[in-house]
Amino acid sequence: MKISIIVPAYNEEQLIGATLRQITAASEAFARRGWETELIVCDNNSSDRTAELARAAGAQVVFEPINQIARARNRGAAVASGDWFVFVDADSRPTIELFSDVAGQIEAGRCIAGGSTVRLESDSRTARVVTRIWNAISRTWTLLAGSFIFCEAEAFRTVGGFNQELFAGEELDLTQRLKERARDQRKSLVVLHRHPLVTSARKLRLYTWREHLRLLRMASFSRRKTLANREACFMWYDGRR
How far apart are CA 47 and CA 239, in angstroms? Predict the structure, then answer.
């Protein structure tokens, strides 16, 4: 068994080193089973030292010139050679316990993909409310958060990977196509919850409530059009760090 861990990264020099060190440590959960791993970082046209720091951490670095999360993840997957892919965002830190739960699901053989609940790196009431709401929605409807997705490589390729027409929400689009694939194979998708993924709360810190509400309003009235518009999805692409 081989696991490919894929990290899309755009101007992440502040966090990429810590993230990759944590991923390397957590990968011991796979090594204990005798599984091979590879760590791939897709430099999504960064203008800082992201690629340099990723190489220094021992990652294979590939380049995607078009700044788009879906393309970055797909570019990483295109060079991956694992039986399963694990997509981890550059501002997130999976634990060995979470990777162990992933390995358990793979060994059980009943799912083709999965995700995890999340915990924001913030003690604020807003962060707690936001994560509580999202985690409830994610577990109730089995929706995979883009910050952490594991997927059988064959299933990922069969459904076509992440939708490159979308600049945000591409993980929800992928979720729906994977659900259809799982039904065909009489398998399932899962959302792990015993060991939530720790991820950055920077969007809450860097963007005002007015900006959050503006994006929500646009998506509510014209979801597909908004998510396919790079400028409308400014929170992912304007470079604030």
Answer: 10
Cross-strand partners of 152: 84
* Encoded tokens for 59: 């990652």
Distance CA 142, CA 18 (A): 29
Half-sphere exposure of 53 (CA within 13 A, CB side): 20
Query: Hey, how many other C-beta atoms are within 10 angstroms of the C-beta on 182?
Result: 21
Provide the residue type at 229 as one letter. N
Distance CA 15, CA 9 (A): 10
Task: Classify 216 as helix, strand or coil.
Answer: helix
Backbone angles phi, psi at 205, to 5 degrees: -80, -35
Six-digit token string for 50: 């992201």
Residue spans of the domains in the chain: they are 2-201
pLDDT digits (tens, 9 = 90+) for 25-82: 999 999 999 999 999 999 999 999 999 999 999 999 999 999 999 999 999 999 999 9
Are the CB atoms for 172 and 99 separated by under 8 Å?
A: no
* pTM more than 0.90: yes
Strands 92-93 and 188-199: antiparallel
CA atoms within 13 A on the CB side of 56: 10
Q: Is the pLDDT of residue 220 over 90?
A: no
Sign of CA dihedral 236, 24, 87, 51: positive
The domain at 2-201 falls in which architecture? Alpha-Beta Complex (3.90)
Q: Which 3 state secondary structure label does DSSP give 189? A: strand
137: its two tokens: 């929605």
DSSP for 25-68? Answer: HHTHHHHTTT-EEEEEEEE-S-SSSHHHHHHHTT-EEEE--S--
